[in-house]
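Quick log. Single chain, no ligands specified.
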Amino acid sequence: MSEMGYEDREQGRPSRGRRAAQGSEGGSKRNLLIIGGAAVAVLVIVAVVAVVAMGGGGDKKPQAAAAVRVLPKVYVNTPANPQVKKLADRTKDKRPLNKNEVFGDDDKTVTHGKYTFTLAGADLAGDCKAVTWGQEFQGDLAKYGCTQVARGAYVSNDKQYVGQFIAINLASLQGAEQIVRDLDPDSGAGFVSPFTVKGSTNFTGGFNAAYSQAYGHYVVISWVEKAGGAQPQTMNELLDASIAIERADDFVWERLVLAGE
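-> predicted structure:
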């Protein structure tokens, strides 16, 4: 097994004003945690979602394939972002998310450095239990007022990487922080099922890394894997790819503006 070294992930990072304000070093810090070095990632197919196309027309939407249980081999959580404290309570941000808001035109292609990803398909579920697994995790989602889970599947333009952008809409920052803890594979609580798109390159359950953070009452997850699930030469590959996927968090900052920050 090759050594999983990595460099400072902030080096060479493009300066986006809203990210640069997050900390004195410019951007959120992620301390790499290698989870279960000898463990084998688990992939269990638990359901197949049948999607029936109704009627004709040329406006074909990406269709969901199999719902799967996948745990990240590497999981990193970052303390709640202090710059979005006005979004700490959903009572000040009552309007539900819509899919075009989360995955709008500006988020259909996301880039960081040499990594460019294109959105293959997206889903906005109003039933949080239907797109997650794990009794404890689902119990906490209900306890802390989960109303929506947005999932977008991305594929790199060179077809070498796949990514998932996930946003969870909860009632409060307190709940978001608990969900971030639940997502740690060591907790055994459960996880979000990756969104899969028929005919596209999807997660395999191989070596993958997930990075999460609470943004007010939202939890944002950027989750990446080399296509086919192979282990990367260094963690820099997945770290840098994850920054590209994280670019889809624009909706948070738009909500912050609407909240009067």
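The radius of gyration is 17 Å.
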